[in-house]
Here is the input.
Amino acid sequence: MTTAAGAGDAEPASRSGRVQSVDRAVALLRAVAAASGAGATVTALAATCGLNRTTAWRILTTLEEHGMVIADRQTGRYRIGSGVVELAGSAGVDALVHAARPVLERVCHQTGETAALAVVRSGALTYVDEVGPVAIVAATWRGRSVPLHATSTGKALLAFSDPADVTRLAGPKLTRYTATTIASQAKLRAELELTRERGFGVCRGEYEASAWGVSAPVLDSTERPLAVLSIWGPANRVPEARFDALGELARDAAHSISRP
Here is the structure.
């Protein structure tokens, strides 16, 4: 009996209901996570998992297309990709939001501006919590997904992600939303370098002209971004003159969530 893809892709029958290709993919993911140096090449990973090299390469290539692993073309070594981090982060979103809530409240009180937290969901950056100043009526961003290249939140995420993930996350075409949107890949790369250097991203009304702000990444123990904390408001309250001070505050607040 064969699948629609052909006899070569048929799965062996299993009374337990297990799918062999999934077992192999999981085994390879675990092997990549545990490997280092020469042990992270396809040949070594195949040996670790008891697979032939061609089968291991095909599975790793598929995992790479889904962002689960990243291949270094120069060394031939694999490492865990942002897709795995995204899944892990999604599993702990409730705990992360709970830990971040008092920090957002403190930041809002200190700055008089909206403080928000965003996480990656299905390849998009989505706001999951925010605290706004009581005396000011502002549109909520909770539940909204935003373009990564046109927001301080997105740029903070991209700047601290693996370089191999940046194009996949941001996309090959950068849509222009306002007159200040960065629509060039070269300009975006330069902006991300600045973001890494200072530890926070900035936005000058690049997605919505009325939204200016700064953002800093909440990093896990391996320095990968789990979430992004942002401080934002209109240009008359959050001008460029406040970016450095607000950026330092956002960076310290995000660090306190990363390592309570």
User: Anything to note?
Assistant: The first strand starts at residue 69 and ends at 72. Strands lie at 69-72, 77-80, 114-121, 124-131, 145-146, 201-204, 212-219, 225-233. DSSP finds nine helices and eight strands in the chain. Residues 1-10 have pLDDT under 50 and may be disordered.
